[in-house]
Amino acid sequence: METYIIILLCMASFFAGFVDAVVGGGGLIQTPVALILLPNFPVSSITGSLKIPGISGTSVAAFQYLKNVTMNWKLLAVMAFFSCGFAFLGSELLTLVSNDFMKPLLFGILILLAIYTFMKKDFGLQQVKQLSDRKIILLGILISSIIGFYDGFIGPGTGSFLVVAFITILGFDFLHASANAKMVNLASNLGSITLFVLKGKIIWAIAIPMAFCNAFGGWLGAKTAIKKGNGFIRIFFLIVVIGTLIRFGYDVF
Question: Which residues contact 198 (CB under 8 A, 6 or more apart)?
Fold first, then answer.
């Protein structure tokens, strides 16, 4: 493989790790770059390979959050279990079918999400808990199952969708949503990686160097998010959602 291709992939992976640590959606950066630079590789191989830097950056970011943000460990344990299992199933399906039919649906959802976040100025700026512990667990199972499957099947934007779910459904603020989302995303990445390794889909020549760059980006992004707080994360979130809209809009139209 050409050296310049690996360098470009590593640059994309670093920025993806930073973005993903702040608000999720790092896959929306490195996935299209990899698809453009590696046109002769199967999509499943590229997706599987990008899970390695994905889990690397997410792990580093999660560790930074663990030192500074309170986690709901009971909820996370349940969500991690379902997220991992359903991501495995999603990745299995990815090796068998095309996922293009999902893009128009996601495009519509992201438009509504961008409008809602922009119009609702207090969205994710404070933590609101109005649900019983039992209801939070049940909703957590539903969220982690659906988004975990999505992560294994499609992937890009998983972190952002998890952040939104933690805020709108479970009542977290942006900082706590980002922190807890990292742990669930870690589990879904693990489920997908297990499947792709078993099927021999990982391109290790790009996966390993990208993993180091993504980890550094994740470390820097998490520290920045913790330092800047909810307001910064909200603005960053809007930027990522708009970028996601442009990406999916290009794919759809």
Answer: none
Residue 131 structure tokens: 């649900």
- Dihedral sign, CA of 79, 230, 237, 110? positive
Q: Are 173 and 70 in contact (CB under 8 A)?
A: no
Reported as half-sphere exposure (CB side, CA atoms, 13 A), residue 103 has a value of 15
If you count them, how many residues does the chain have?
Answer: 253
d(CA 141, CA 213): 32
Q: Identify the three-state secondary structure at position 6.
A: helix
The domain spans of the chain are 3-252
How far lies 104's CA from each of 30, 32, 53, 95, 101, in Å? 21, 17, 27, 21, 7
Helix or strand run (H / E) with residue 169: none
Which contiguous run of DSSP H or E holds residue 54?
helix 43-66
- Cβ atoms of residues 106 and 137 within 8 Å: no
**What digits encode the pLDDT tens for the residues 147-196?**
999 888 877 678 878 988 898 888 888 888 888 988 999 999 999 999 99
Kindly report the pTM of this predicted structure: 0.76
Nearest partner of 121 among 231, 242, 228, judged by Cα: 231
Within the chain, strands assigned E span none
Residues 39, 79 contacting (CB under 8 angstroms)? no
Give pLDDT, residue 53. Answer: 93
60-95 residue pLDDT tens? 988 888 888 888 899 999 999 999 999 999 888 877
